């Protein structure tokens, strides 16, 4: 598997400067070679990926991409690695792993390059910046590149629940670095605020249910994974299910109804922030807020334009606190963003406008 990962990365123009058979050896080779990015399997003999990431972030902070099993158990372990400081993860598909890696090699290369440029200061170290070298630590796999990481700052609600406009709908989109950033934003929202929230995080299906559970435990709002036909009202949050687009299909009396769509809709990711925001802009006739957080790519740029045209407000995370300043940058470039805020101010911006 290490040979296969090396071949895939080098065929994509990335120089692999070292390999390691387990976590302990990985720490040694990272210290010796100082790579720009590390790929790390979650499950390894001896020191596993979670412990290895914890030590790596303490001793030699380096942007790290986890290679994880495409299962609910794999999701639990992967989130633990993200908590330890890993930037992102790449989920292995079912079946023959080597075939899966080869089939998804372009996506794996793009994800490794994105992680190499991540700002990991929130994980206790300083990002090395984008580069062309990579240290490969263990066997991996492939599937949809989902996102996670460590944001900077702590989200706090700068306004009170009473100042929220009645029947406000919020659509939050994120990718690389998003799970931590979304958690911090939701934790800063008052539980009794008149908000109904949709979260679109680029993440495969096996992971979004566990992600919703984590968010529910971290904030005062009621959070669950979206189901087709689900409704969301005051104080409730739906997390888009991986592998499906989330659309607002109906809005009445402060309650949203959503549909899960198994079509590409012209997007290269599923779920897509664009699809959710555009559907909300078409359907919701009460106050609407679009939020674009850290992530690679341009998903959300079309969505914020639709929200602004519909009279809604648009907030983008700033570059300094973004793990990857891709999606917020592209959103800001549309000229439709009302506020560019550090992560710790986003919740306050949602509740009562920009501080």
Structural features, described:
It is an enzyme of class 3 (hydrolase). It is found in: Cytoplasm. The active site is at residues 175, 202, 299. Residues 1-107 form the Response regulatory domain. Belongs to the CheB family. It is a single chain. The protein is α/β, with parallel strands linked by helices and 355 residues long. The protein has 2 domains: 2-143, Response regulator (Rossmann fold, 3-Layer(aba) Sandwich), CATH 3.40.50.2300; 161-352, Methylesterase CheB, C-terminal domain (Rossmann fold, 3-Layer(aba) Sandwich), CATH 3.40.50.180. Helices cover 35% and strands 22% of the residues. The chain has 12 helices and 16 strands. It has helices at 2-11, 23-33, 49-59, 72-84, 97-103, 105-116, 178-187, 205-218, 273-283, 301-309, 327-333, 343-352, and strands at residues 15-19, 38-41, 64-69, 88-92, 133-136, 145-147, 168-174, 195-201, 222-225, 231-232, 236-239, 245-252, 255-261, 288-292, 313-317, 339-341. The strands form 3 sheets. Strands 9-11-8-7-14-15-16 form a 7-stranded parallel beta sheet, with helices on both faces. The protein has a 6-stranded mixed beta sheet with strand order 1-5-2-3-4-6, with helices on both faces. Helix 3 links the parallel strand 2 (38-41) and strand 3. Helix 3 (49-59) packs parallel to helix 4 (72-84), helix 4 (72-84) crosses helix 8 and helix 9 (273-283) runs parallel beside helix 10 (301-309). The longest helix has 14 residues, at 205-218. It is elongated and about 60 Å long. The N and C termini lie far apart (50 Å). The model is unreliable at 123-159 (pLDDT under 50).
């Amino acid at each position: 598997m290490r040979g296969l990962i090396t071949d895939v990365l080098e065929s994509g123009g990335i120089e692999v400067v070292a390999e390691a058979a387990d976590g302990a050896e990985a720490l040694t080779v990272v210290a010796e070679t100082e790579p720009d990015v590390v790929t790390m399997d979650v499950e390894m003999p001896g020191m596993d990926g979670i412990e290895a990431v914890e030590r790596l972030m303490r001793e030699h902070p380096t942007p790290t991409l986890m290679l994880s099993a495409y299962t609910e158990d794999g999701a639990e372990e992967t989130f633990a690695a993200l908590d330890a400081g890993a930037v992102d993860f790449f989920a292995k598909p079912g079946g023959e792993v080597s075939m899966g890696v080869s089939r998804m090699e372009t996506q794996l290369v793009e994800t490794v390059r994105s992680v190499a440029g991540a700002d990991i200061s929130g994980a206790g170290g300083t990002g090395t910046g984008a580069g062309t070298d990579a240290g490969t630590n263990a066997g991996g796999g492939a599937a949809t590149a989902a996102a996670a990481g460590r944001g900077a700052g702590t989200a706090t609600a700068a306004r009170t629940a009473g100042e929220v406009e009645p029947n406000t709908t919020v659509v939050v989109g994120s990718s690389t670095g998003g799970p931590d950033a979304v958690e911090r934003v939701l934790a800063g929202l008052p539980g009794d605020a008149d908000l109904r929230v949709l979260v679109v995080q680029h993440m495969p299906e096996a992971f979004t249910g566990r992600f919703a559970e984590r968010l529910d435990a971290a904030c005062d709002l009621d959070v669950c994974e979206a189901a087709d036909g689900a409704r969301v009202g005051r104080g409730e949050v739906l997390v888009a299910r991986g592998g499906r687009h989330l659309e607002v299909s109906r809005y009445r009396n402060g309650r949203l109804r959503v549909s899960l769509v198994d079509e590409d809709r012209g997007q290269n990711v599923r779920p897509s922030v664009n699809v959710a925001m555009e559907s909300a802009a078409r359907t919701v006739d009460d106050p609407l807020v679009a939020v674009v957080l850290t992530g690679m790519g341009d998903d959300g740029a079309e969505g914020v334009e639709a929200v602004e045209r519909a009279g809604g407000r648009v907030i983008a995370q700033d570059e300094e606190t973004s793990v990857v300043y891709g999606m917020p940058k592209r959103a800001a470039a549309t000229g439709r963003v009302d506020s560019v805020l550090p992560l710790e101010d986003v919740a306050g911006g949602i509740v009562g406008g920009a501080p």
